[in-house]
Amino acid sequence: MNAEINPCPKCQSEYAYQDGELWICPECGYEWSANDSQASDDTPVIKDAHGQVLQDGDTVTVIKDLKIKGSSSVVKVGTKVKNIRLLPDSSDGHDIDCKIDGFGAMKLKSEFVKKA
To answer: What does the alpha-carbon distance between residue 3 and residue 115 come to, in Å, rounded to a whole number?
Structure first.
């Protein structure tokens, strides 16, 4: 048995366990590599709807019509959003900050976009 204790970088759970090369947290479901566990402490991984890792400056495509709160406008499926900025500490789930042509600045949830 591995005597090394490697707490979860996301929720700090002490119950994380190693499965092959990955560490897995049973409490929050977060997975990380032992090699990049130090990097994970600084920046949580944000993935699109298909599981691809997003980074600042990426271009994404909206995969679902999104109603704009307080307006009758809709961001249509297929709308490309360039030069996104990630917000990893967002408490409301809107973890992408961006500007959309015709709409202006807004925040999106990563579960409604795919990496272009």
So the answer is: 39
Distance CA 54, CA 98 (A): 13
Q: Convert the pLDDT of each residue in 32-67 to its tens digit.
A: 776 654 444 556 789 999 989 999 999 999 999 999
Alpha helical stretches, state H, 30-95? 37-42
Distance CA 11, CA 62 (A): 29
Residue 97 and residue 116: Cα distance in Å, rounded? 16
Query: Rounded to two decimals, what is the model's pTM?
Result: 0.63
| pLDDT at residue number 79 | 96
CA pair distance 37, 33, nearest whole angstrom: 6
Contacting residues for 31 by C-beta, under 8 A, at least 6 apart: 22, 23, 24, 25
